[in-house]
Amino acid sequence: MVFRRFWILMFIMAVFGSGFCVLEVWKAYESSFTKTIILSTSFPYAHTPFPSVTVCEASRVHNTIIKSLFQNASGRPGSYEEALFNMMTLLATIRLPLFGRFGQMKKWKAHFDELNKLNISDVLLQAVRPCDDIFDSPCWWRNRFYNCCELFELQKTCYGYCYSFNSDVSEYSRQKTLFYGMYGDNKDFWLDDKGLARPKRTGGYGPWSGLRFSMRAQKIAPYVDTNPGIVVMIRDPSALPTELGIRVSKGTSGYIRIWGDKVLPTRRLVRVKPEKRHCLYPDEKKYLGRGYLRSNCLFNCYERFMYHDCGCVPSFNYFLYKADFPYPECNLEGLVCLADHSTNLININDRDKNLSSDLRCQCPDDCHSQKYKSNIIVANETTSADQIVVDVFFQTSTCFLYETDIVFDFMNALGDVLNDIPA
């Protein structure tokens, strides 16, 4: 009887001891966090895509069209023609989410019924300056000259219609890049109609090693509120051009130097829940036709808030994908509504505390990322007062390569607890 009680007691102690060990293992596993270490201080840029380079003119409506609209409206105050002219001058310089100036269109409310019939995205597409009219000489890419319009493609941006180089989300390439690098596809490139790999890469660094182009600044009519020049945006090829960009004025040349580190996750990090690792992989969410990128997620927040406030989204800023663009396009009244809510759109992070959870802007970091930082050196090396020369290149041939991992996985935590048990 004594031995039986002894073994029962030992069994109970063993059960409690095992439970204690499992609890400690679980606590160690749950409290673990990610760490990032340096794998290499000289990772070649040749193994990473060259960034997309997006060029937006100061006025996204061709000067000849603005002049024609002005002539039609001259001497006809309060007319439909005057309302159309003023709408186009506002659209020429609009930038998301700064719609506030569209409140001026309320003065022509009598013509809203007719103006609302216009497809604003199509109107802007027809009014954009043709590619052949922008560049004044062949473009330089990786040691040879090309027809610029073979390198640059029409691109929807936060400024409206612009032209981009090496973008996975241009009007041309977005139809071909829906699945590459996602859903088990391990490729880091796709093929264009010529069979050439995209996104493009280069192993060189310094001036004349990347993309170089020259263009003529568009003349700006006095009734368009902007100054002659261009905006250049340097982005990840899969990222929508949504930033303020780098301003380059006419009569100047800009040398844009690029650098940035690469971050790779370990294989076991993907097994950790997203809310625990605080980052997302490209195939875990899809925004605007591409795999997850934090910058695209933030852009998508504007889309949801615009629909919440005004029931529409301006399609000259976004893609018309059936899967992730279920919202109506904004007509003129929709843009006026966005003007009324402009302050709320600018401060989306402050306002989402009072909204339902499905409207909150939650955009974790990217688990896998290549950073593209840039600055510009401006010189006066142009041959005429309206010329603009831009040279985009990597500052060095290599960057830092980082690896992100979890501090403990379950087996590490188990081993750590067992090591703490006295022999």
UniProtKB/TrEMBL annotation:
Subcellular compartments: Membrane
Record has Ion transport as a keyword: yes
Primary localization: membrane
Pfam families xref list: ASC (PF00858)
Entry keyword set: Ion channel, Ion transport, Membrane, Signal, Sodium, Sodium channel, Sodium transport, Transmembrane, Transmembrane helix, Transport
UniProt GO cellular component terms: plasma membrane
Signal sequence segment: 1-17
Any one GO molecular function term: ligand-gated sodium channel activity
Membrane topology: Multi-pass membrane protein
Family in the record: Belongs to the amiloride-sensitive sodium channel (TC 1.A.6) family.
Protein name, UniProt field: Epithelial sodium channel
